[in-house]
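[09:14] KT: can someone run the structure on this one? pasting the chain below
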Amino acid sequence: MIKALFFDIDGTLVSFRTHAIPASTVAALEQAKKAGVKIFIATGRPIAIIDNLGAIEHLIDGYVTTNGAFSFVGKEVVACNPIPAEDVRIMARLSDEMHFACVYVGEKHIVLQNPNDLLYKIFYEYLNVQHLPENPPLDTIFQERIIQITPIIDEPTERIVLPQLPGCISGRWHPAFTDITADGADKGKGIERMAARFGIGIEETMAFGDGGNDVAMLRRAGIGVAMGNANDAVKSQADYVTTSVDEDGVLRALQHFLG
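[09:31] RB: done, structure tokens below
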């Protein structure tokens, strides 16, 4: 019996085409909630830029953010797995030496290093973020725990950068950037910790996703559902492939499994 649903945001709940949650998805989640199923978010976004869930916020029981590195229920922190400080310093040096933009997500601040047009295009156009918080000095990243780093780099550059960060793993879901978290912080472990917080077994969970950073939770959940707009590598790791976010994919999967 499924007791908890975990949803990626971008490309799963929210359409990249309309930047909105389809009405069919809202209705499906409301029905699941009425049936007593817990509903959770599992996203690469930090809480500061989760600004597109207004239609379903009242249904959400908890958040797994920054790819599992920081999870919370209300004001209760369920999990926090920061990046080793030395790896943060290495990334800051590489950003300067290799001339790429970087986003650091701390416990209190979001810091941009070497921001460029591509970074702003990704956030404002691709992710439809309404605004980025005021950018504090770069030294801020050395004064608080960093939960996630998002370098604006392609895959060949990632293959140079990642081996220099021994305490980190990468979760790519876009050709132009990747999300770097501490080793041991991924969506799979994130949803497992959140389910345990509510006394729910991992076999009683269902997870929905479309990106490379969703693979860990699709494999870990009792049922992993890939959206129709996911690539073949993601689909191959899922238990079930539904239609795309724009073709009522969430509704169709929930009808298939929950009736």
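[09:33] KT: thanks! Residues 85-182 form a domain with the Hypothetical Protein, Haloacid Dehalogenase-like Hydrolase; Chain: A; domain 2 fold (CATH 3.30.1240.10).
[09:34] RB: yep, looked fine to me
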